[in-house]
Amino acid sequence: MAPLSPPTDEELTRRAQAGETGALGLLLARHQAPMRAVALSLLGYGPDAEDAVQDAALTALRRIGDVRDPSAVGAWLRAVVRNSARMRLRAKRETPGLDGLDHLHLRDQAPSHPEWIVEQHAMRDWIWDAMEELPEQLRLVLMLRHFSGITSYQEIAAVCEVPVGTVRSRLNQARAKLAQVLLATAAQAHDDAHAVTEDSRQEALVTLEGAFRGCLPGDIAELWPAEAELLGTLSEPGERIHPNTAMRRNREKGVTQHLRHVVASRDITIWEMDVTNPPGIPNPCPPTLAWLMFRRNRRVRTLRVIFPEPA
Q: Whose CA, among 91, 230, 274, 296, lies 20 to 30 Å from 24?
């Protein structure tokens, strides 16, 4: 029996555009050598060339729908690497560590292009499953930088309580590890990232409503155990505060919060809020804030309330 012929680039590209992550993984693996050759020709040996290839692989996740001639996907991938390398050569400003993910926000957007159709399904879940494989501190900087409204290096450094240089370093590490995981998991099944986000969104709405009424429902209260701790600007140095205390203080002041955006993974959750202050309140709350929660088995370990600077 004659062996089956391997799929052509055209076949793999069309399957990838239809949302088949394994097909895109095969394409990236097949063209990795020529992609690396382009990077080396422009940047020479060193980490910049490796970064350019990784950036191109991540860009392919978002823009595979742009390929109009599927049989020429190899040339398209090399062009993506070439653009990434040239940007590195002329960049004189701060550059995000995951250029290819800059527009992969899990926000409500009307799919008007094939890349959005792909992103809304398998590719999105592939990315989130890969992110779950990263260490917590690397996953956090990615979630903040590329999926939340807390994007500047200075803000991320303040949230993580580390120097800006450490933020840059962690983003670089995260980019490299994420690219490796994406390639390694291309053909595996993935959890539904949309379901995780929607579950978190419903939890946030019920939590806000319960906090406003002064009584959390039982199933929600169980997620805030006695050992949960509020950290950051809303707590005094050396003072241990349970998050319920902050919720009660807000209720007593008449401050209300309205859910704007949710970013959720297995054990890190970010709820971004718009804030309404009652008229004439002393020391009003800033107009936006975010709840940054670290969890274990869904239960909140720590909550840090952060105040992003206005865009």
A: 91
> In the chain, how many domains are there?
3
Of 233, 206, 234, nearest to 222 by C-alpha is 206
277 and 201 assigned to the same domain: yes
Range of the domain at 235: 194-306
- In this structure, the strands spanning 299-306 and 229-231 are parallel
**pTM, whole model, 2 decimals?**
0.65
Question: What's the whole-number mean pLDDT along residues 14-37?
Answer: 81
Task: Say how many CA atoms lie within 13 Å of 149 toward its Cβ.
Answer: 18
Q: How far is the C-alpha of 2 from the C-alpha of 23, rounded, in Å?
A: 23
Identify the CATH number of the domain in which residue 147 sits.
1.10.10.10
156 C-beta neighbours (distance < 10 Å), count: 24
What's the rounded Cα separation, in Å, for the pair 14 and 65? 9
Higher per-residue confidence, 3 vs 272: 272
